[in-house]
Specification:
- The protein is mainly β.
- The chain has one domain.
- The chain contains no helices and eleven strands.
- The protein has a four-stranded antiparallel beta sheet, with no helix packed on it. Strands 5-6-7-8 form a four-stranded antiparallel beta sheet, with no helix packed on it. Strands 9-10-11 form a three-stranded antiparallel beta sheet, with no helix packed on it.
- A hairpin with a 2-residue loop joins strand 6 and strand 7.
- It is globular, with a radius of gyration of 16 Å.
Length: about 160
């Protein structure tokens, strides 16, 4: 689980956090936006993102300067190599809903050995424009006992100037 992301909008403060959960016959990413963490914390919105039977884990979330939320994670199953994927929600979307999942890196292999991989991911907002999201995650480079690599992807919402 990645650290929570903090935003101070002047009129309110927000924390965005996520963790992996069992969801149906797969796994999902449970996410929350908590408002007013310094006074009386309130869950502003929350949801579990699990649009298919794939397992989703090692998520990371962040919020840009207009309140859009992006969430990245690894997704796989017994018949799908680990992929790096992301989703998000515009600040004007109905609360508690994420958008359509996007594949940033299509998996081409799986790890066949005992070493761990994928323990780290990071969704961050670029400080130069406060709109561009940068997502970094690990994934297997090919099927091998221990052969992972790190990929970095970036994107932004069209409503962030």
């Amino acid at each position: 689980m990645f650290r929570l992301a903090y935003r101070n909008f002047g009129t309110h403060e927000s924390l965005v956090i996520n963790h992996s959960v069992n969801a149906g016959s797969g796994g999902g990413v449970r996410w929350y936006e908590v408002r007013s963490p310094g006074t009386t914390p309130v869950i502003q919105q929350q949801g579990t993102y699990a649009p298919s039977t794939l397992f989703r884990w090692m998520g990371s979330a962040a919020m840009d300067k207009v309140g859009n939320i992006a969430m990245g994670y690894t997704a796989s199953s017994s018949s799908t190599f680990p992929n790096i994927r992301f989703t998000g929600r515009s600040a004007s979307d109905p609360p508690g809903q994420m958008g359509v999942e996007q594949t940033a890196v299509k998996g081409i292999g799986s790890q066949s050995g005992p070493d761990r991989w994928g323990d780290y991911s990071s969704m961050s907002v670029d400080p130069t424009d406060d709109c561009t999201f940068w997502f970094t995650a690990q994934h297997p480079a090919k099927t091998a006992p221990s052969n992972w690599q790190t990929s970095i992807v970036h994107f932004k919402f069209s409503n962030c100037p």
